[in-house]
Design brief:
about 500 residues; alpha+beta; Beta Polymerase, domain 2; cca-adding enzyme, domain 2; 8-stranded mixed sheet; two-stranded antiparallel ribbon; 12 strands; about 10% strand; elongated; binds adenosine-5'-triphosphate; binds magnesium ion
Length: about 500
């Protein structure tokens, strides 16, 4: 693909001609850069950190690229762990901050070798939920490919015995370290392909990346279709950076996406789980969702949900998702915790309802059917985007609690308030009320009771009349049962 012979001569932008100051670089990253330099190696800050610093933003993480081999890096830092089986990366730990140090790589290696499908579920079941937990937030973290033998079909083995592609062009194997001139070609967008040299504080720009950052433009390095085929996750990254940074996607980079979305079907579900968390839980979820739909990618991540959104009885679940994502974005801005459990509940609700209605004959389906519907949807979904059990189980609980909100009399109501999933389930109820499929009065009642002292809660539940039996859908979704409500003025949909 992008052979080094096609590279442009790189331009070096000296310190006085750019805006990056060491004061805005993490002191730990500076320590790593300087120690590498003092040991005689090349050391550069790379990728998103350089882009963000040029934009005047605070980078999420600071990644370093060097000509030192991983073993050399380990020798230099006591607090260093090597990760990855084939492409070894060094993680230098400073408390909770990890500086990732990658050795320059030749050729267009996969950015993150694919994890086994269950790898994202490696944490203990009782692990507490937290923002982005389970996701890989470690920058261009690379874990080895576990390639099932049947999937290896090297159709392009000609350029190197070290490299193998599958029939769609995806890189399966690539194990060469290289020089910085080679390293740049494996990066995705020119705006992400900049190197800040600690030796003289200049920026090395091989791909006209500074112009792209200035123009707020995402342009893939090399031939876009080839780059997407090598690693289809780059389509999701285009969406993510467009949403997060407000960059426009260059037409040549944009056009193939609509056509190539299906390539995501071949990406291991554990990797897509990580990407989905980055797309939806980083503060730009609502915009990411819009763009995923615009480019026809959402249906490849959540096919059952996307199909249900198109059916009138479940279309409102899309609005719930949009509102839920907007709320999540606001929580991120306010530095409040966000959880994959709630995220997957709003992502999968349309599919669960559809499944439930297809299983339920009568108007008041049994709770057991709701559980079966959740399980069926989760099972199908795992084939696309894996959802670790530690999120899938509470997600199912959250949905199973919805019908219980209609019970406001007696001890059942009191015990619901104590349920570990109450808060998330209540937030979900509020969303249902906002889009008109749950009673506003009901939601308000639960809003009020939460803040009362126990004695007053008891009085409140005792004052309630006898109530009808539970219906599994919390009284909402069966076709034709939606309550009338006023449409939001001017609300637009994709
Ligand atoms: P963020 O702000 O999300 O950290 P980032 O650009 O730093 O954005 P990372 O996922 O941290 O993104 O990756 C660091 C760098 O590694 C990228 O800037 C890019 O140069 C390279 N990279 C990461 N993933 C890929 C990929 N799939 N294909 C090509 N290059 C990639
Ligand atoms: Mg990064």
């Amino acid at each position: 693909m992008n052979s080094p012979s096609t590279q442009f001569p790189h331009s070096v932008i000296p310190r006085p001609e750019h805006s990056i100051s060491r004061a805005s670089i993490s002191p730990n990253a500076l320590k790593v850069l300087y120690r590498l330099k003092e040991a005689g190696y090349q050391a550069f800050l790379v990728g998103g950190a350089v882009r963000d610093l040029l934009l005047g933003l605070r980078p999420k993480d600071f990644d370093v690229a060097t000509d030192a081999l991983p073993e050399d890096v380990r020798r230099l830092f006591r607090n260093c762990r090597l990760i990855g089986r084939r492409f070894r990366l060094a993680h230098v730990h400073f408390g909770s901050e990890i500086i990732e140090v990658a050795t320059f790589r030749a050729a267009a290696a996969p950015e993150r070798e694919d994890l086994p499908d269950d790898a994202a579920d490696g944490a203990p079941e009782e692990a507490p939920e937290g923002a982005l937990e389970g996701g890989d937030e470690s920058g261009d973290y690379i874990e080895p490919v576990r390639v099932e033998p049947a999937r290896i079909e090297p159709v392009q083995a000609a350029d190197s015995e070290h490299r193998a592609f599958d029939i769609t062009g995806r890189i399966l194997r690539d194990n060469m370290y290289g020089s910085i001139e080679e390293d740049v070609w494996r990066r995705d967008f020119a705006a992400n392909g900049l190197y800040y040299n600690i030796a003289d504080l200049s920026i090395w720009d091989f791909v006209d990346g500074v112009s792209d950052v200035k123009a707020r433009r995402l342009k893939l390095i090399g031939d876009p279709e080839t780059r997407y085929r090598e690693d289809p996750v780059r389509m999701l990254r285009a969406v993510r950076f467009a949403a997060k940074l407000g960059f426009t996607i260059d037409p040549d980079t944009e056009t193939p996406i609509r056509r190539l979305g299906y390539l995501l079907d071949g990406v291991p579900p554990a990797r897509l789980f990580d990407e989905v968390l980055k797309l939806f839980l980083s503060g730009y979820g609502a915009r990411s969702f819009e763009l995923l739909q615009k480019y026809g990618l959402f249906e490849h991540l959540f096919p059952l949900s996307a199909a249900a959104f198109e059916l009138p009885p479940y279309a409102y679940a899309r609005e719930m998702l949009e509102r839920g994502l907007a709320n999540t974005d606001a929580r991120v801005v306010a530095d409040k915790p966000v959880t994959p459990t709630f995220l997957f509940a709003i992502l999968l609700w349309s599919a669960v309802l559809r499944e439930l209605n297809e299983r339920a004959a009568g108007p008041a389906p049994d709770l057991a059917l709701l559980m079966q519907a959740c399980d069926a949807v989760l099972k199908a979904q795992q084939a696309r985007v894996s959802i670790p059990r530690r999120f899938a189980v509470p997600m199912r609980e959250l949905l199973m609690l919805q019908p219980r909100f209609t019970r406001r009399s007696g001890v059942k109501a009191l015990s619901l308030l104590q349920h570990p999933r109450f808060r998330a389930a209540y937030d979900f109820l509020l969303l249902r009320a906002e889009v008109g499929v749950a009673d506003t009065e009901l939601a308000e009642w639960w809003t009020r009771i939460q803040v009362l002292p126990q004695e007053e809660r008891v009085v409140l539940v005792q004052a309630r009349p006898q109530e009808p039996p539970l219906s599994a859908d919390g009284g909402a979704p069966a076709p034709g049962r939606r309550r009338r409500r006023r449409r939001r003025g001017g609300a637009s949909r994709n």
